[in-house]
Design a protein that fits this description.
This is Transcription regulator PadR N-terminal domain-containing protein. With 184 residues, this protein is mainly alpha-helical. The protein folds into two domains: 90 residues, Arc Repressor Mutant, subunit A (Orthogonal Bundle); 68 residues. The chain is built from six helices and three strands. Strands 1-3-2 form a three-stranded antiparallel β-sheet. The chain is elongated and about 75 Å long.
Length: 184
Amino acid sequence: IDAIADAIEQSMKKGHISTLILLTLEKGPSHGYNLMQIIKDDTYGVWNPTASSLYPHLSSLTEKGLIEFTTEMEGKRERKVYHITQKGKKTLKKIIERQQNMRKSLLSMIMSTIGITDSHIPNDFESLFGPELLEDTSLVGKTKNEKLEILSKRKLVISKIGDKLQNVANEIDQRIESLKADGK
């Protein structure tokens, strides 16, 4: 089971490399090796592209006109420094919009699989943390039992989010301590 899940995860990661390259280059020009390091650092090691996985994506993005490069000399070596183009910026904006929609639909599917529907989740993120949660219009017209079910499932969702946020906070603490210990 782990091997199957790992293979699916690797496939999903490959699909995001081009997006990660565009996101990185939107911050500023970079050469290939530096791109690999930035992607690894910015994703906390979740994505750790190798040269053999990165350079085909750079070639493809260049062919599509989404990035371009200039050649600079570093010692006796030539090095390509990549830049995002206007077309690349516009494409990146569309990719981000589409990925947000995909993430939202995937989350909806996962939630429905565990028995939580959109009516159990407020429309906006801020409502999760304010009094609006209890006054949500999705409760209007519901029976007492329906309201109890919706609010119970919302509480479950919020508890799971809280647990996840606590795990993330703990990981951040570990990274902070690791960075302090490195002395960098």
